[in-house]
Amino acid sequence: HVLLAEIWQVAAPQRLSEWQAALPDSARDSADIWFVQGVWMEQRNRPREAIRCFAEAVLRNPNHPVAHLSLARLLRISEDAHQATIEALAERGLKLQQLEQAIDRIRLDQRYEPTIQQAAELCFQLSRIWEAIGWCSYAVELNPQATWPAELMSRIRQGTQLSTAMPLTLA
């Protein structure tokens, strides 16, 4: 559904209404669907509707970087939100983008420890605790002499009650 909407946005924007009407109810739970609708609303100069769509995308996927950045940008323009909220959204969006870039670099060089450390730190800052723990474990496997994984794990233990029932992203 998302890919079709992206095609219509470029090739035949007039067909997006038809696309939206044909969405199955199950698709309406998708952050990506809400994001695409937000882009469409913004293109149609309907900022309030775009803000709602981007907010729905963020609610459904707290790890959607572009939805965070788009929402922050529109809220800043609309002046309908507190500055702290706008800054928090923008900061999270930027950190999510940095994490995606770090992971892309790790895919190219799976043994480059500074990038692994960056990914672990960003996951911790983004409250993606299980991923931070995973990056720490991976770093120790690569370099048992590395001290930063133990330091980060100590910070994680201090601020988090670890449990297998814990969600992937903490609020």
Structural write-up:
Helix content is 71%, strand content 0%. The protein is mainly alpha-helical and 171 residues long.
Largest sheet: none
The percent of residues in helical segments reads over 70%
Gap from first CA to last CA: 28 Å
State the helix count.
9
Strand content: under 5%
Point out poorly predicted stretches.
none
Class from secondary-structure proportions: mainly alpha
Average pLDDT over all residues: 87
Oligomer: single chain
Number of strand segments: 0
Using the CA coordinates, give the radius of gyration.
Answer: 19 Å
Anisotropy-based shape: elongated
Run of helices and strands: HHHHHHHHH
Blueprint of the fold:
Elements: H1 2-11, H2 16-21, H3 31-43, H4 47-60, H5 65-78, H6 83-108, H7 113-125, H8 129-142, H9 148-159
Give the structure's gist in a few sentences.
The protein has helices at 2-11, 16-21, 31-43, 47-60, 65-78, 83-108, 113-125, 129-142, 148-159. It has 171 residues and is mainly α.
Keywords:
single chain; mainly alpha; 171 residues
